[in-house]
Amino acid sequence: MQPLFLIQSHKEPAQLARLARVLRRGVPACHVLVSHDIRAAPLPASTFGGDPRVHVIDGKGGRGDFEILDGYLAALRWARDHIDYDWVTNLSGQDYPVASLAAFAAELASANHDGFLHHFDAVRQNEDQMRPMHWPPGHGHSRYYFQYTKVKDSAGVVERAALKLPRVAFDRFDAPFRINTAYGLLFGRRATAPPFTDRFRCYAGSYWHTMRRACADYLLGFVALNADIVGYMRRVLIPDESFVQTVLLNEPGFRFVNDNRRYYDMRGSRRGHPQALTAADAPAFLGKNYVFARKFEVTNGAAFFDRLDHIALSPAGHPAEAFTRPAAAAPAL
Known about the structure:
With 333 residues, the protein is α/β, with parallel strands linked by helices. The protein folds into 2 domains: 3-121 and 202-324, Spore Coat Polysaccharide Biosynthesis Protein SpsA, Chain A (Alpha-Beta Complex); 146-190, no CATH class. The protein contains 13 helices and 14 strands. It has helices spanning 13-26, 67-82, 101-109, 127-130, 139-144, 157-162, 164-169, 213-225, 227-233, 243-249, 282-285, 302-312, 319-324, and strands spanning 3-9, 31-37, 54-59, 87-92, 96-97, 115-116, 120-121, 146-152, 177-180, 185-190, 203-204, 210-212, 262-263, 292-293. α2 (67-82) crosses α8 (213-225). The radius of gyration is 20 Å and the shape is globular. The relative contact order is 0.16.
């Protein structure tokens, strides 16, 4: 079995290189494909030490619009045309494994489902299914049943304050317009013909997932054959938290575990960004059902990542012990 770890990155080459090395050491048969944001500083040619199973392509990132999906889909097309793989796990450059990678690969090899994909009905918004995400009532309707036009790439503090009252006024369920200032200044108009029906429901969930290659190939095929739906989703709000779920969950041949096996802390977050994790957060994600966590900053230091490496490279894994005992020298990567 050859898993593919697809990383969408935009900064911190040293941390990115470390992530790629531990993935390659933890699952020697894997490929690592780095889709690096074309708007970021270029990755030095020496970043990955010439590993033939680490591939770097130009990509697109972003948040709140379709560009991150454009980058993801382009990377899946590149992978389809250039490498063999069985499963794909998408990651950011600030993700890191927090459980045994060998155990994760073995789990995928024996899986009787098609992936780990967090999902829920975007309109019904079942709170239990949504966790750890939390939306106010009617938020899915505002996101995916309106078509948005971006007026400005960013909205300042004064502009957001000035627009607060009209934003609230338009937030009624039956209002024909929406104003959003979370990802720039966007003006939304109620869609006249949304593509969603009882047979093609609108789903949502976390962008991060693991799925079989058959799912990735189906996703690419859907995009090629359904320009109208893709065009509609380009103009919704935060399509990266809906598009993959909506396409795949409406295909009855697939079966997904409603758990993406990721830990992230959204408490007190602003505009969808999770809290940066430190060693103090380790009890929340180690020894649980998580395989990856995000986001980690390079300021955590080498000793912190050394201990995560011991966990990731352990065939059995003893996370709590690994984090409470003094750090030993990390295995060569």
